[in-house]
Design a protein that fits this description.
The protein is mainly α and about 260 residues long. The chain is about 65% helix and about 0% strand. The chain contains 9 helices and no strands. The two termini are about 15 Å apart.
């Protein structure tokens, strides 16, 4: 059975919506079109390779090949990579039992509130997941491009275009994704400040050991961070899903 792929969207991605839900203020949607925004990310040195790909003639050296199991195989590889990365996010060793590949940090036993409320361990945790996603998805995307290049001249051209855009936009993507942890830091500080205010009003002593209990402010933050990580995973996978969908559509047309 063919694996379902996430539907791509050029409006607000799940990651943008997840971050907007955590923001104190609503961020208005951009009035620029998708093409206008992408155009601002490209500079002159990107224009030449992009022009070359867009204006390349259709190759006559290779004709479209008959349908192969490549479509199903790529969908299975896509599903496997996503499942491994999602499992690493969800199975964090705190909310789920067992050993985690990347363990979610929690306040140390008998830690004082000041040291336990440091965001740096959570920043390192988030960055570790981002590195994990980058390594796995970069390899997956290269494999998908290679499969498309072997299938037909039209898909070979699409794979070349994806490679050029990937190279041109990679710096911008890294810059934008690096800001996610900073936005989470603001959310972390906001929740902790609200927790302190509520504790002061109730005139109760603070106990970091209880922050991760159900209803605790840190437990809420970690759940939100988990949701943001899953949304980022799907956002990073969208270009790969689009390539596989293009192959699926071509295979379907020939059957």
């Amino acid at each position: 059975m063919a694996q379902a792929l996430p539907r791509t969207s050029f409006t607000r991605s799940g990651l943008v919506r997840a971050l907007a839900d955590l923001a104190a203020e609503d961020v208005p949607a951009s009035r620029q079109s998708f093409a206008e925004r992408v155009g601002q990310w490209l500079d002159f040195k990107d224009a030449l390779p992009l022009y070359s790909v867009l204006n390349a003639g259709t190759s006559t050296a290779s004709a479209p090949r008959p349908a192969t199991p490549a479509d199903a195989a790529l969908r299975e590889e896509f599903a496997r990579v996503r499942a491994v990365l999602a499992e690493s996010i969800v199975a964090n060793g705190v909310f789920t039992p067992g050993k985690a590949r990347i363990e979610l940090p929690t306040p140390a036993p008998n830690a004082c509130a000041e040291s336990a409320a440091e965001f740096s361990p959570y920043r390192r945790y988030y960055l570790a997941h981002q590195r994990d996603m980058t390594a796995s998805i970069t390899s997956l995307r290269a494999n998908v491009r290679a499969a498309l290049s072997r299938h037909s001249p039209a898909l070979e051209r699409l794979a070349a275009l994806d490679a050029v855009l990937d190279q041109a936009l990679s710096t911008r993507e890294r810059t934008l994704l690096s800001t996610v942890s900073s936005l989470l830091a603001k959310r972390f500080e906001h929740l902790y400040a609200a927790h302190q205010a509520a504790r002061a009003e109730a005139q109760t002593e603070d106990d970091p050991a209880r922050w991760m209990e159900p209803g605790g402010w840190l437990a809420l933050f970690c759940r939100e961070m988990q949701a943001v990580l899953l949304a980022e995973l799907d956002t990073r996978l969208q270009p790969v899903a689009g390539l596989i969908e293009a192959l699926h559509n071509e295979v379907s047309e020939k059957q």
